[in-house]
What we know:
Layout: H1 2-13, H2 16-25, H3 46-56, H4 75-81, H5 87-98, H6 103-110, H7 133-150, H8 198-204, H9 209-217, E1 221-227, E2 231-237, H10 260-269, H11 271-274, H12 287-296, E3 301-304, H13 313-344, E4 364-367, H14 371-385, E5 394-396, H15 398-405, H16 420-425, E6 435-441, E7 444-447, E8 456-459, H17 461-468, E9 486-489, H18 492-497, H19 500-509, H20 527-530, E10 539-543, H21 549-557, E11 565-568, E12 584-590, H22 599-611, E13 623-627, H23 630-642, E14 647-650, H24 656-668, E15 673-677, H25 678-684, E16 693-696, H26 703-711, E17 725-730, H27 735-742, H28 744-752, E18 757-761
Parallel strand pairs: 3-10, 3-11, 4-8, 4-9, 5-7, 9-10, 12-17, 13-15, 13-16, 14-15, 16-17
Antiparallel strand pairs: 1-2, 2-11, 6-7, 6-8, 12-18
Protein name: U3 small nucleolar RNA-associated protein 25 homolog
Family: Belongs to the UTP25 family.
Region (Disordered): 55-139
Amino acid sequence: MGKRRAGRELLRSLSKKQKKHLREFGEEHPFYDKVSACCFIGCYCSHLWFSFQSEDSDKSSAESDSETEVEQVSGYHKLLATLKTSPESESEEEEDESESEEAEESEAEMDSKGFQETGEGGEEDKNDVPEEEEGTADTAEQMLSQEQADGTDPSCDPRHGVIEEFTDVKHESEFSLETNFMEEESGDCNADRKDSNPFKQHMDKELEEKEIEKMSTLPKTSSQSQWPRLGQLIFSSTLEKHKTLKADKEVDVKQLHLHKPLESTWPKVNKQFLSAVDKPIDFFFTPLQRELFCVMNSYRDLFYPERNALTNGEEIRHAYCLHALNHVLKANAQVLSNNAKRRDRKLGTDTDDHRDQGLTRPKVLMIVPFRECALRIVHILISLLEVNDKKKIDVSNKKRFKGEFGSDPEEKPPNLKRPEDYEAVFAGNIDDHFRIGVAILQKSMRLYAPFYSSDIIIASPLGIRTVIGAEGEKKRDFDFLSSIEMLIIDQADIYLMQNWEHVLHLMKHINLLPLESHGVDFSRVRMLNLNNWCKYYRQTLLFSALQDPQINSVFNKHCFNYVGQVAIRNVPRTGSISHVVVQLPHVFRRLEADSITSVIDARFQFFIDKVLPEYRDAIMSHTLIYVPSYFDYVRLRNFFKKEDLNFTHICEYTKKAAVCRARRFFLKGEKQFLLFTERFHFYKRYTIKGIRNLIFYELPTYSHFYSEICNMLKATDSGVDATWTCTVLYSKYDAQKLAAVVGIDRTAQMLQSKKNVHLFVTGEN
């Protein structure tokens, strides 16, 4: 009975999101840190799963460098292992947390649970599990099944995690494009008029084979333009030079060619942002939205790397939601209008003028990092469709959607003190495994529509990856991506902290010919889809908080829009080093590498040969080594163990107890070095006390992390300013990151000179 009661109490203590992660993956989201877990699924990112196992099973200094053996333990097994804690380990953990500034937060997150603490590094040994635990795990599974049996279908209950993905099938006929017709009052009077309608101009353009061959072989030509709000724009295209696009100073709603209901609803929905503008030029857009929408409405690809969750994030979200919804409404209006024409045509007549569809129905794919983002997008779409308070649109499965995508205020640990940008990024439901289909037909919206009956698909990279699957898997599907006409990737920088491989996997499987017909009427399919030219018509909108080579690569190598691409390329003048408030000498040490592929090995060799020997002396204690890449972190950790250096380490997979212990050892000087990963800082933002010497193994991905880490030195009361040091390793391939830290002028000087650069920041620079 004791085991059964313990299992019941354990399950009741889990929130709905934690239960969902436990059911699906056998592990929890890293944000909560109750169980050693990560949000990157092992079956689809084997290298990260391998790294996770190597971190979790590290129990001796004789660890193999290859780390190829992986021991798999069930999620229930690991979860229940946390209940088997000795009083000594509990008291030691309480002592660790009392010495940490995160004491109150740790108690809230851990919920009075202890951790098994073994080994010098403070990591939990998964083999050290009591024999009774297996039976307890079985009991937990029985209790979980009993909990499901006591109520209704758990897949329909928002309090439980979704076991089998729910799709709405009962509204199929109501939202079918093939069996419905245009309603006059909701129709778009310009649906069939080509004129200057951007949608018609873009989709009705018939490319020739020689133009397709030209786009596939010839390089792009580019030109520059300066806009008042966006700054420097780079226009690029392979085909003949298009008419120069200029920013509109004023916007006439008629010139936007918005679908009928959007003309009246958009000003009301966007009113919150217009009120913040001192002297609004028009009553429809903020200056940023006006210039962004000007590019979007021209159906060019767009890369905007200056998205900020605190300032302009919601402005941008509203702008691309308007554009996406306008595209869907126009496309559906065209189909419904042609349905009526085909119905009323004379018998015996045949026409080829009604090609208005793709091989599959989904037209817009929105990639966002968290469920909270999907929730906000759906709310914006609903608001744009509701003309007034009296005319509410019918939204199916709205209650379920709020339950699964909404957030519970009680789930957030109390007493969290984090930077404002952290609070903005991690607001609401931060589950990163989801996907949902949205069908829109005139005055109704259908949530949880099957993908092949959806107009818009909103998903996370992980959520879409698990559907696409991997080569060789029996259950995989990516036909629904065949006719995507608009791809929106928002907050792309966050995917660098999750798993960028998921984004690359998506780009490889989008706009491919489907393997099955899926009931399509081929007489209605556009020739561009039949010719497999859809990727040349797809518009890609890419928003990020920074410029990164991996993000740039996706925009340059996976975007083939025949109209061309527009990238915002503003260079930082000052850099984040100006926000360092402590008096600190910064030494930038340049390393040489023959190519971008060899820079990883060159950096490691430069570090162990030139940098590390200077810090081996005991006088250079309290040295924090900031490592952006997890693979570099594993490599350094193994080297430090091999050399028997006095160090501790913290990464995104380290357990709470081990983190507390590592921080205590480092603060007291018991450990000379602290290896510290960028992902851990991104997800936690802890202040590390006791730093006297900083080494940036590589420049941080987020430029403001540089000033944040440097400013941690002021948290050390016993430190002497004159002894503080900061060393940064960089190469010529780090030009973008370097410019974001020191500014473009200093970057140019540093790249021209091969000497080390010494900068002294007084806090006023």
